[in-house]
Amino acid sequence: MQVIAGTASTALAERISRELGNIPFGMPFTKRFPDGELYVRIGGQLQGDDVVLVQSTRNDQDILELLMLEDAVRQSGARRLIVVVPYFGYARQDRVFFPGEPVTAKALAQHIALQADAVVSVDLHSVETLHAFTKPAYEASGIPALARLLRQRPVDLLVSPDKGGTDRARRMGQLLDRPWMALEKRRIDSEHVELELPSSVPVGLEDKHVVIVDDVISTGGTIVGAARLLAKGRVGAITAACTHGLFLRDAFERIKAVTDEIYSTDTLSNPAEKASVAPDIAQIVKRYLAELPAA
Ligand code: R5P
After folding, report:
1. What is the pLDDT of residues 136-170, one digit of tens each?
2. What is the span of the domain harbouring residue 119?
3. Are 226 and 210 a contacting pair, CB within 8 Å?
4. What is the 195 CA–ligand 1 centroid distance (Å)?
5. How many Å lie between the centroid of ligand 1 and the Cα of residue 263?
6. Which of 31, 106, 185, 232 is catalytic?
7. Residues 197 and 98 in one domain
8. Residue nearest to atom 1 of ligand 1 (CA)
9. End-to-end CA distance of the chain
10. Domain tally for the chain?
């Protein structure tokens, strides 16, 4: 078995190769033709081998590179191809909101699945996307990775910035044996939200270390709003923790100004990627391969 890294996920791919038992790890050669077209080439022998290909799809370029690498792996005669998409971009368009639109998440999932035997992703925007892959598809959670990191810190309360993230805060609370709550969130526009404390708060906030847990930090509006609200309760320290840290524009600096720590997992490269989902992804890959009927 070997791991091949797309350019969007090099560091995580190497960590996954270590978690899978220091198996060979390769970085394909990439270049641009004079007209701007992308060229990729994977080295080494793949004939009859199982390949784990790792590439987040944050933008169009990442998507194209992933599809090209999948084909290159197949052309090289690999036996099985497990595609790991740590951050699955374009996931928000998971339904037709206005007539004439595509269901982009489904279309992308179907294309990724075409050449794959199985697909693994992390904290997808919606469960429908997992079902849109036409091959066995698995979802890891970023919460255990963040909990492994936070276990080394004194944490008093886990907070989800909205009701939709209740399960994440609850799960983190269970892993750290700490109380949790979900805020009431109302989105004003793409960068601004209004937040309120729930009617019942499980512990007094004063002097407590509160961790705000979210799946994605994008513009940072949600975390900044949550941190400002919690600061009014005179909390002692605030940590922002997320699975996917996009940190658009000045989001990282704006969050840094209102929190004490920022943690994200390594599904995307960013200055806060301190928790790795590599063990969780490797575990899914191992389980998938172990459950296959003997060849
Ligand atoms: C929303 O439902 C998500 O869980 C995140 O809270 C949201 O995507 C974060 O976006 P932003 O950082 O732009 O507020």
Report:
1. 999 999 999 999 999 989 999 999 999 999 999 99
2. 2-141+277-290
3. no
4. 12
5. 15
6. 185
7. no
8. 216
9. 15
10. 2
